Amino acid sequence: MHISEKEIEIRYAETDQMGVVYHANYIIWLEIGRTKLIEDVGFTYAEMEKQGYLSPVTDISIQYKAAMRYGQKATVRTWVEEHGRLRTTYGYEILHEDGTLAAKATSEHVVVKKDSFRPVSLQKIYPEWHEKYEEIKKREEHGIRN
């Protein structure tokens, strides 16, 4: 399984009055992690958008485990959890510097035409991207890890 990692320095502006990271900031971190994974396997969202496609979130789930605070560093680990004909689900872990799990999450996405918002298959518009996700999935099914 290919797992991307991205370190994030927690900024003061990301915290609430209790001094902990405000819950909505985790969603931003998931996007940062997802973007890193996509770049790591050789593609970019920006190029997809230039070609007239978007990949909106259709579902997101976060379980908060241990608070993070200003001045700490978080590591976002991201992988492809599932990939099908129209949907891709990404998995995430957000870790403290000592490896303690701060949060775990999943986000589900579809690819749509920018002008009509009609869903399209990743395989149809980006066969190489689709094949890379299939390869990652196949490697995971056979217990092979990068």
From TrEMBL:
Pfam families the record matches: 4HBT_2
Keyword match Hydrolase: yes
Keyword vocabulary terms for this entry: Hydrolase
Signal peptide: none
PANTHER family: 4-HYDROXYBENZOYL-COA THIOESTERASE FAMILY MEMBER (PTHR31793), NOVEL THIOESTERASE SUPERFAMILY DOMAIN AND SAPOSIN A-TYPE DOMAIN CONTAINING PROTEIN (0610012H03RIK) (PTHR31793:SF27)
Family in the record: Belongs to the 4-hydroxybenzoyl-CoA thioesterase family.
Protein name: Acyl-CoA thioesterase
Organism from which the protein derives: Planomicrobium okeanokoites
Taxonomic lineage of the native organism: Bacteria, Bacillati, Bacillota, Bacilli, Bacillales
